[in-house]
């Protein structure tokens, strides 16, 4: 049976058909749908874990115990998982262990555009890269085979365009794979220095064997056309290259992007007059091929920054100046990112801005607090950094500066990697105030549950982490829960906590506007006759409040009736539609 599938859905299907039985991940765009789709297969135990390091450790345990296991993460998540990654490379696996990692060239929803291929090389792990949904499924199945045959974890790399594009997939049957026997083997699985030293040469030999495999595997394919031009490429870049250069020329499409197939590359290069390398982000193939003494044209023609497309390749490599007028480009209005109407973070950032605090921020929807009109965020580096950076500022500039500083992060992010920073503050006698924006969900990636929501990936009820008790347990004495839509009280709480000469935690609690529990209804109306056009309400930055330059209107299509704007109108002229403002 054939089905149109999202790349991420196909990766999940590949895990299902390969007989995987354990999956553990932390959500991160563009990889999130992989695990969401895996969770639909009852044959695979699936979970959201607190962060990618934990996810990887869970599947390492499962694989060593004998179950085919998979974790999915975005490229920056791989940084978090890097610690166990480099060592599980040494210990190897028992049953197959696959990491599906999605890069984000162009930074559609990421803080950098690192190239995960470097991880494969530095951790000495094989990496595959599919170029459509069919390959997403097929390569995952192949990855489990390689993992078991070579006793290695394996990375399957996708990118936003592969993960989030749809193409036809031929579905197969699930292979029921027996649990492998578990054998205690401390020389293999206990990576103390003495054992690690013995494992290193084994890993080097494994890489040699994998290189031999790369030269033979059908994952790498040569498509011979005319031999005037040859292109070496992989993944989505291969699709762009094919569109740009057409079907007449020759291609070496690399499905195994590490280790690279030396013999195959040399064979291909020897046959073509001019050799191009088309790859997004880093000159990973290019540098390798040049080091082999082969002349190639690559990054001197193509950008190292952002996504490629056929037009960029044509213009830069084929010198075809195209006047491609996209009607979409002409007519699509620019829509800057903005917090949703009714977003609970709006009230919190409004107050932080009003108080003029230095805000060390974090990764989540609330990163939008950095842009106008709130502009209430000074830094954003990675998940959990808000907490540790506030502490760093405290230690660098002293208590008075700390009393004007606050670290802000979400509930899921706090669980991901904020907890350790908070422990650091307490342990090292800092006085920072940390605000946990608890909107009862992992918002940015599309509403995944986390340990603070009380539900599992399957929607089953589970133990809910109590952020108040947890903060107390860490050693924080001052823990306050506040409603960010009660602006006056919220301001009082924030002012009091940042002024305190001890660490404190403010839990800004109100559900995400898109959750049923937000329980908003109706739209807001303004009595135009009484409106003073003081524009106080516009300072909230709610997209439903429209400044028409001489009067204020509420966009009925956007307003969800959260009533935060009531708090800003001193004239009391805002009402819910159909209600009196008496
Ligand atoms: S206009 Fe007012 S009630 Fe409507 S969404 Fe915006 S802040 Fe909430
Ligand atoms: S705050 Fe009230 S009076 Fe001022 S512009 Fe908004 S609706 Fe009009």
Please characterize this protein's 3D structure:
This protein is α/β, with parallel strands linked by helices and 582 residues long. The chain has 20 helices and 22 strands. Helix 1 packs across helix 2 and helix 10 (235-245) crosses helix 13. It is globular. The longest helix has 24 residues, at 193-216. The strands form six sheets. It has a seven-stranded mixed β-sheet with strand order 3-2-4-5-7-6-12, with helices on both faces. The chain has a five-stranded parallel β-sheet with strand order 14-15-16-18-17, sandwiched between helices. A hairpin with a 4-residue loop joins strand 20 (545-547) and strand 21. Helices cover 37% and strands 17% of the residues.
Summary tags:
582 residues, alpha/beta, five-stranded parallel sheet, 22 strands, binds iron/sulfur cluster
Question: How would you sum up this structure in a few lines?
Answer:
By secondary structure, this protein is an alpha/beta fold. The strands form six sheets. The protein has a seven-stranded mixed β-sheet with strand order 3-2-4-5-7-6-12, sandwiched between helices. Strands 14-15-16-18-17 form a five-stranded parallel β-sheet, with helices on both faces. The protein has a four-stranded mixed β-sheet with strand order 9-11-10-13, with helices on both faces.
Number of E-state strands: 22
Q: Residue ranges: pLDDT <50 for 5 or more in a row? A: none
In DSSP terms (H or I, runs of 4 or more residues), the helix count works out at 20
Shape: globular
Q: Quick one: biggest sheet?
A: 7 strands, mixed
Measured by DSSP, the beta-strand proportion falls in: 15-25%
**Whole-number radius of gyration?**
27 Å
Tell me the distance between the termini: 64 Å
Strand order of the largest sheet: 3-2-4-5-7-6-12
Helical content stands at 25-40%
Bound molecules: iron/sulfur cluster
Instruction: Output the structural class.
Output: alpha/beta
- Overall mean pLDDT score? 95
């Amino acid at each position: 049976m054939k089905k149109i599938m999202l790349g991420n859905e196909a990766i999940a299907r590949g895990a299902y058909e390969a007989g995987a039985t354990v999956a553990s991940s932390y959500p991160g765009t563009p990889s999130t749908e992989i695990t969401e789709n895996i969770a639909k297969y009852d044959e695979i135990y699936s979970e959201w874990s607190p962060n990618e390091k934990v996810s990887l450790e869970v599947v390492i345990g499962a694989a060593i115990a004998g179950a085919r296991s998979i974790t999915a993460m975005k490229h920056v998540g791989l940084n978090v998982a890097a610690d166990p990654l480099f060592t599980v490379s040494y210990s190897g696996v028992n049953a197959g262990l696959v990491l599906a990692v999605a890069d984000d060239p162009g930074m559609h929803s990421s803080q950098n555009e690192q190239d995960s291929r470097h991880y494969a090389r530095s951790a000495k792990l094989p990496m595959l890269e599919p170029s459509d949904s069919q390959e997403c499924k097929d390569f995952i199945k192949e990855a489990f085979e390689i993992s078991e045959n070579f006793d290695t974890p394996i990375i399957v790399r996708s990118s936003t365009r592969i993960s989030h594009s749809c193409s036809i997939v031929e579905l197969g049957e699930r292979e029921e794979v027996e649990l492998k026997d578990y054998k205690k083997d401390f020389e293999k699985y206990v990576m103390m220095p003495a054992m690690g030293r013995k494992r290193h040469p084994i890993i080097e030999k494994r890489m040699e064997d994998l290189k031999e495999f790369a030269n033979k595997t059908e994952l790498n394919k040569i498509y011979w056309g005319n031999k005037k031009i040859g292109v070496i490429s992989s993944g989505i870049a291969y699709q762009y290259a094919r569109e740009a250069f057409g079907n007449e020329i020759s291609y070496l499409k690399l499905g195994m992007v590490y280790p690279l197939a030396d013999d195959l590359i040399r064979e291909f290069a020897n046959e073509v007059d001019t050799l191009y390398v088309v790859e997004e982000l880093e000159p990973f193939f290019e540098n390798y091929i040049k080091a082999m003494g082969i002349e190639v044209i690559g990054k001197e023609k193509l950008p190292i920054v952002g996504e490629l497309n056929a037009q960029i390749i044509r213009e830069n490599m084929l010198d075809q100046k195209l006047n491609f007028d996209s009607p979409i480009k002409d007519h699509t209005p620019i829509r800057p990112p903005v917090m949703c109407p009714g977003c609970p973070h709006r009230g919190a950032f409004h107050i932080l801005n009003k108080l003029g605090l230095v805000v060390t921020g974090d990764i989540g929807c609330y990163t939008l607090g950095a842009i106008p009109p709130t502009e209430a965020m000074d830094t954003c580096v990675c998940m959990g950094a808000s907490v540790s950076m506030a502490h760093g500022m405290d230690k660098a500039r002293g208590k008075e500066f700390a009393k004007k500083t606050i670290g802000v992060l979400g509930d899921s992010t706090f669980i991901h990697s904020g907890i350790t920073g908070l422990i650091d503050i307490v342990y090292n006698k800092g006085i920072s105030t940390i605000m946990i924006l608890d909107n009862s969900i992992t918002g940015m990636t599309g509403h995944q549950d986390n340990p603070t929501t009380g539900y599992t990936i399957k929607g089953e009820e589970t133990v809910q982490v109590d952020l108040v008790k947890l903060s107390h347990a860490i050693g924080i004495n001052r823990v306050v829960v506040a409603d960010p839509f009660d602006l006056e009280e919220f301001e009082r709480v924030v002012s009091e906590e940042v002024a305190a000469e001890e660490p404190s935690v403010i839990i800004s609690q109100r559900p995400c506007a898109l959750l049923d529990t937000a329980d908003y209804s109706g739209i807001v109306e303004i009595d135009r006759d009484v409106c003073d056009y003081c524009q106080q309400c516009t300072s909230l930055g709610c997209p439903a409040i429209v400044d028409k330059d001489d009067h204020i209107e509420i966009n009925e299509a956007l307003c969800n009736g959260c009533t935060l704007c009531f708090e800003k109108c001193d004239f009391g002229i805002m009402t819910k539609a159909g209600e009196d403002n008496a």
